[in-house]
Design a protein that fits this description.
There is one protein chain. Helix content is 18%, strand content 14%. It is an alpha+beta fold. It has a two-stranded parallel sheet with strand order 1-2. It has one helix and two strands, in the order βαβ. It has one domain.
């Protein structure tokens, strides 16, 4: 997967990011029917990221 952030974001210079580091970050994700979204949610386990969905 790829994490896209602005060049001034604290995670911008990182090559790897652990799932725990995404906790409480605002995210824009595709709808739950997309496999990448399902994979992220499965990998996050008990973490509850602040999710924003793209409109239809």
């Amino acid at each position: 997967m790829v994490l896209v952030v602005a060049n001034y974001h604290p995670l911008a210079k990182r090559r790897k990011v652990r799932m725990i580091e995404l906790h409480n970050l605002r995210m824009t994700l595709l709808r739950a029917t997309f496999s990448t979204r399902q994979s992220l949610m499965n990998a996050s386990g008990q973490l509850a990221p602040n999710l924003w969905w793209l409109p239809k």
